[in-house]
Sequence to fold (326 residues):
Amino acid sequence: MNKKALITGINGQDGSYLSEFLLKKGYEVWGTVKRNSVSETQSSRIEHLLKDGKVKLEYADLTDMSSLIRIIQKVKPEEIYNLAAQSHVRVSFDQPIYTTNVTGLGTLNLLEACRMVSPNSKIYQASSSEMFGNNIDDDGYQRETTPMNPVSPYGCAKVFSYNICRNYRNSYGMKIWNGILFNHESPRRGTNFVTNKVVKAAVRIKLGLQEKLHLGNLDATRDWGHAKDYVEAMWLMLQSTLKPDDYVCATGVSHSVKDLCDYTFNKLDLDFRDYVVIDEKHMRPEELYDLKGDSTKLRSELGWTPKYTFETMLDEMTEYWLNKYE
Fold:
């Protein structure tokens, strides 16, 4: 019999790539989505997987534990990937209570549901580099041992999720892995995130469909990888024969938002300085300046190796938007 996997937030960027990856591995894939009055848009990333019934969807919400119990009892999954969240850092300042309820307490609801009805399921928790805040080790990297000091409601909620997963793992012997993922992008990334926002705008400017691009802090640096590489890391964690643990997933190379703009606009024979406008409304109340991850543990223990570079990732995203508009 095929393994069954349940993915919360299956209709997001990571959920869509993970679904494709697991289907190729022969899994039976189930996913949860929130009820949305405009259902046509919420499944756009996985529409191609729904046509022939490859993926099965159920309505559920991390803030409603009864819905989680119902779906876990129905599916009886060997593996659960908790990817659902309010995941936009800037928005978390506007909706701190909602972000905390979904991204923080929602994880606790899922763990309790699993403990009650499926304690042997393997669980992947989507932790985040935002948990580190501006704490950086002396060598310029952040790793599993770097102290966590988040600078956003989103980061704070993720720290709670990270710690409650460790607590349930230690207290109840549950099989839970925390994947501390650094920024990962793709053509499927929401266009309110800076990478896809920049690439989409650059293409639109090139084609005469847009005049300016409004951004916040251009000097902030991030460790950007491709979501396809990172969903493989999620799967590798749950296949490990080692005891459940926490792993940083990152490329180990960081670039600034300015680098992102420079490379993307140059690719289109444009100079970003002619089009980018610094806008205060895109600044965070407390800024996170530098992120760069050390994934040595993940690479050495589980054999993970990313296939994309910063440049090939942006090339793919640029090609996507050119094809979309042309």
The chain has a mean pLDDT of 94. The longest strand covers residues 122-128. The CA atoms of residues 35 and 59 lie 6 Å apart. The chain is about 45% helix and 15% strand.
